[in-house]
Write a structure and sequence with these properties.
191 residues, Pnp Oxidase, Chain A, eight-stranded antiparallel β-sheet, globular, binds flavin mononucleotide, Split_barrel_FMN-bd, FMN binding, Pyridox_Oxase_Alr4036_FMN-bd
Length: 191
């Protein structure tokens, strides 16, 4: 399954923190594509309902949040240099903000907050993104135990994965599709 191949790529790049940077494309309120780099925070573990979900953290005030509320479909693109493999992971985004009533998801949000480094946490206390630059010298570090209101956990729930391996001529490509029961099928296709 695609997850074992992704795990292998992550393992081979374990000494390169930048291998956890992925690109996430969403659709904006005018139906135009938007894309940005984000940090992969691992898979949501111990969840039957949300298995295979990728974890990302983001600020409630960022533009992607309004885009996701309007259209949850998104695609991640992720390239690993050593394994020369590209993963295009397509699915729906689930936003877990302070108002999320689901206890399991809220506790995952809290855990994600507690797992952040202090420099990562303080960014959520910065002034509103995309507004004219202000002085940041007075920002107090937020409570490391309780997530600040702007902190969101974002889950990408994949339904389709396209894996391209550049090694070999011709290259190798597989499509993974999830059926309604949540089972994955794999098909080897032409590159
Ligand atoms: C290497 C790198 C890692 C980043 N990691 C994150 C992240 O984990 N979460 C996040 O919200 N933004 C992250 N950013 C910033 C985003 O790329 C983006 O600028 C920000 O989320 C605002 O995007 P939006 O206006 O489309 O919502 C990262 C940027 C870079 C260059």
């Amino acid at each position: 399954m695609w997850r074992s191949h992704l795990a292998r790529s992550l393992h081979q790049h374990r000494n390169q923190p930048e291998s956890r940077f992925l690109q996430l494309a969403t659709i904006d309120l005018d139906q135009r594509p938007r894309n940005r780099t984000l940090v992969f925070r691992g898979f949501l573990e111990n969840s039957d309902r949300f298995k295979d979900c990728l974890k990302i953290v983001t600020d409630y005030r960022s533009q992607k949040v309004a885009q996701i509320a309007n259209n949850p479909w998104a695609e991640v693109n992720w390239y690993f240099t050593k394994t020369r493999s590209q993963f295009r992971i397509f699915g729906k985004l689930i936003l877990i903000d302070q108002e999320c009533p689901d206890l399991e998801l809220q506790s995952a949000r809290k855990l994600a907050w507690q797992s952040l480094s202090e420099p990562a946490r303080i960014q959520f206390a910065w002034a509103h993104p995309r507004e004219p630059r202000v002085d940041f010298s007075e920002v107090t570090p937020p409570d490391p135990h309780e997530p600040i209101s702007s902190f969101c956990l974002l889950l990408l729930e994949p339904i389709e994965v396209d894996r391209l391996e550049l090694r070999g001529t011709p290259q190798n490509r597989w499509l993974y599709l999830q059926d309604r029961q949540g089972n994955w099928t794999e098909q080897e296709v032409n590159p």
